[in-house]
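Narrative progress, year one. The postdoctoral researcher (J.K.) led the effort to move from monomer predictions toward full complexes, under supervision of the PI. The following entry was the first complex the group processed end to end, covering 656 residues in total.
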Amino acid sequence: MTSPHEQKKRKINGSVVVTANRLGDGAVVYRTADDHWTTDLAAAAVVAAPAAAALLARAEADGVRAVGPYIAPVELAPGDRVLPGNLRERIRLDGPTFALPGVV
Amino acid sequence: MYRYDEFDQALVEQRVSEFRDQVRRRLAGELTEDEFKILRLMNGVYLQLHAYMLRAAIPYGTLSSDQMRGLARVAQRYDRGYGHFTTRQNIQFNWIKLEEMPDTLADLASVGLHAMQTSGNCVRNITTDQWAGVAADEFEDPRIWAEILRQHSTLHPEFSFLPRKFKVAISAAAHDRAAVKVHDIGLRMVRDGAGEVGFEVIVGGGLGRTPFIGKTIKPFLHKRDFLSYIEAILRVYNQHGRRDNIYKARIKILVHELGAEKFAAEVENEWRAIKNGALALDPAVIAAVAARFSYPNYERLSDNPSALARARSEDRAFAAWFDSAVSNHRQPGYAIVTLSLKPIGGPPGDATAAQMDAIADLADRFSFGEIRVGHEQNLVLPHVAQRDLVELWQQLQMHELATPNVGLVSDIIACPGLDYCSLANARSIPVAQELTRRFRDPALARSIGRLHINISGCINACGHHHIGHIGILGVEKNGEEFYQITLGGRADEDAKLGTLLGPAVRYGEIADVIEDVVEAYVALRQRPEELFVDTVKRLGVEPFKERVYAAR
């Protein structure tokens, strides 16, 4: 859907996280409140859009553990569940939307 | 097959060693991502949505069985057990860890494969007809010329930082199976009035956000001038191509803005200064490269052996496969066999490691150990004795490689789309999968006839949607996937860009709409033999538009 490049240009409202790819293997990671990276979206720091700039700035300063950090929208579901805010982010979290070849 | 020499092997091994050190420095934090990105791209390493992707080159789409086993090994050891064959005759692995990338490249190097110049603003893998050297309608083997250019352009210092990437395709047959008119440089081998074989030089073709069909700037180029003239084109492009705007940096924009005549004059001017220099090709050099291509020691066989004729008349399933997958070979008693990588419901162009191993074994048994990759994302066994076709077909069925749909509606070209690619706006693969299910009935597909559907998940057009008979382009509207449809494109010697059908439709509607387009064609064609693309040419898109949108 919206590439990170376009997301940077777009004003995002509501709740967001900072996400990137892990340097060593490219896995999708999310920034935590204590400035670490996690593959678990539920453990990510969820902030209101205006506060995301500071979280992103700290993530960008960490150029070794993760690559290409950007702000991505999330949705808050009942029970404080955090869900990706668009299809692109859903695919990043869950993988391709079809069975991979050779997987029965 | 082409036999690489010790320089080639030393080159790929040196490159692996160099990249191993670069990866080490990046992982240690000694290189920033900005510093490292250009280095990894020079080695075919991209970062996609979920993981790193490695694009390995398959020069002019020719693979040995050992190389195919090497690809299978990489898929198994470092990836998730499969690879994706692309429209540029390359292979992509979608899940390789950066930490394991040097070992992956070392494994590839052990079978003479590499990932150099599969990315970056350089001359990319030179593509050609997947039937090169065996096609019945060919002047001569175009891979010799692809190889000469590969040697010249590999790590060429002057052309390693062009304004943008540069793609060359060469075809040497009457029928263009290499889509040369939509490449930065397309070369068609032709015969002049005196019977000499040379090249028609086409420049400025390309797809992406500004598609163009290439323009012929030299109707006949002598073989001796092959390298010097291409060098002249690259120099003019390198000097005048735009570097201020990535969207206007390809040679097609330069040719369009200057005009083909002025561009040709610039090239001619540059060429005059170099044509009689070191780049003039000595026939001995051409012969030396040609001599490194080995050809099978064919048996003397007759066409259409009786067992084959019997199987074709008695076994309908075999006959359906034969009609779609088997093509004429220049050698009597032999055939070219296309292996469909488009199973019903499968991702187009993907092959599992088990399939790759099986294909390698079948190539050894039935095709002198040789395999080809076609830009339609299928594979080819280029030298199969006709007497072996029934047995080969039985073996292919066991590995899901005998779907009888080559060239038919479910033989879909699709880019990885939003399921993998960080540039994509919409998914391509699930759309292709659903369409293969809609047209899964072989009798229906045969009654529709030759029809190419091409799907791209964004305007960059890796799925070549502009030149699909039916082109599908994924776009985003307010956070939702939509698809634009074009009709009447084609990639062959009569290359043409498709015409937009009408408003984009939602993801949930696209398969229904394509079914409606195909039904409209069946109703509108003059006779069953009139191909889809010819019906569109005759009538335009309006009658299709009326039928498709009237119900919506």
